[in-house]
Fold this protein.
Amino acid sequence: MTDLVVLTLNTSHTRGRIVFGGLTFPCALGRGGLTHFKSEGDGRTPIGRWRIEQVLWRRDRQMRPGALMRFLPKRELRVNDGWCDTPSDPSYNRHVRHPYGTGAERLWRSDHLYDLILVTSHNQRPRIKGAGSAIFVHIARGERDGGLAPTEGCVALKRRDFAVVISFMRPGTCIRING
């Protein structure tokens, strides 16, 4: 079993590289850098080792991620899918449906960031109110410009690199974010 290992590239820690087996890919990290103590809305990527819990994808934009179908729970995204980011809500850091009564990020987006999502185990069991939600691996913003714009705390890859990475993933693959 091989982990996706995230290493930082610059002093602000908004860019990194993912090393996976013998492969290396550039990636974007949180706009606030890395942290051992994640807080909701801080824009930082949490340091640690997280399981890949689930795959979410948009059928209208992304082919079904077949290599992951055998061993990871998967779900096709729908227009009303969201992810609760309100710490006081009982569904905090969980999938919800819009319209939703409190704050919840929309997973169905007009940009391409969430065409394919790997949901991580960060702050899942146990869930700690305010310790961060929606820490995903997703498609990078700015890739059309050749760049990797910082995320809100996730790890993001260029679409073509993401496709290669998921094709080599196996049962038990985790993401390890090093500070």
